[in-house]
Amino acid sequence: MGNNNKPRLGYFHRFIVPSDEMRTRRAQGQKGERNKFTTFLLLHGTGGNEEDLIPLAQQLGQKAAILSPRGKVLENGVAPRFFHRLAEGIFDIDDLKYRTNELADFVKDASNAYDFDVHNVIAVGYSNGANIGASMLLLRPEILSGAILFRAMVPLIPEILPNLTNKHIFMSSGIYDPIVTRQGAEKLFGLFRKTGAKVTISWQESGHELTMEEVQTAREWLQKFIVI
Ligand code: MLT
């Protein structure tokens, strides 16, 4: 669905309904019970697209729906991202704010179009996608009930810190990451702590690249803290 030549709801994207829900919708010939399932909002890294994180999301939980947009900003005309940057790790904050709101509105529109519960959305982001996921928690917290952020750093410091006491956040960071330093990841962890979020950080013996082990750790965290 939605993977044609024209963007739908403003973004090229995929939406995948969990198979149980699909069966219910078919059997009932209607929309099913939207409150029954969690939706993963997949946010790819620089140069990626809406297909990249689907296998990872399927490893995290088979019962969740998947909403996976492609970032609209093209770096050097070729590499999709979710917001402009001036250099590696130096962000165009005005664009980041604009794109965060635009993406949050897309999730709301998609929840109406595909009939999923907008109060049960977990962002799953990697690198640039993790950074806009963190930005969404800070600027538009009503859109996410939690987030799994692989290789995230502080995207921006909001003027007013939101109250994130009811949000569950799992950060997974690489000890040897040359792009997001240990201090950079810890700064984001500290910022989330100040908002009251239930945040966990898991350290990997790796760089910026993802490992199989951390996907498994994220899955265990999800099973423990979030009912999918
Ligand atoms: C970003 O631009 O969001 C970060 O530098 C991570 C990346 O995409 O390389």
List keywords for this structure.
228 residues, alpha/beta, seven-stranded mixed beta sheet, binds D-malate
Task: Give an overview of the whole structure.
By secondary structure, this protein is an alpha/beta fold. The protein is built from six helices and eleven strands. It has a seven-stranded mixed sheet with strand order 1-3-2-8-9-10-11, sandwiched between helices. The protein has a two-stranded antiparallel sheet with strand order 4-5. The chain has a two-stranded antiparallel ribbon with strand order 6-7. Helix 5 (182-195) links the parallel strand 10 and strand 11. Helix 3 packs across helix 4 (128-139). The protein is globular. The mean pLDDT is 92. Bound molecules: D-malate.
Topology:
Blueprint: E1 13-16, H1 19-28, E2 39-43, H2 54-60, E3 65-69, E4 73-75, E5 79-81, E6 85-87, E7 90-91, H3 93-114, E8 121-126, H4 128-139, E9 146-150, E10 168-174, H5 182-195, E11 198-204, H6 212-225
Parallel strand pairs: 2-3, 2-8, 8-9, 9-10, 10-11
Antiparallel strand pairs: 1-3, 4-5, 6-7
Helix pairs in contact: 3-4
This protein binds D-malate.
D-malate (MLT) binds next to helix 4.
User: What is the number of beta strands?
Assistant: 11
Overall mean pLDDT: 92
Helix content: 25-40%
Rough outline:
globular
What summary fits the major beta sheet? 7 strands, mixed
Could you tell me how far the N terminus lies from the C terminus, measured between alpha carbons in angstroms? Answer: 22 Å
Unreliable stretches: none
Order of helices and strands: EHEHEEEEEHEHEEHEH
Strand percentage lies at 15-25%
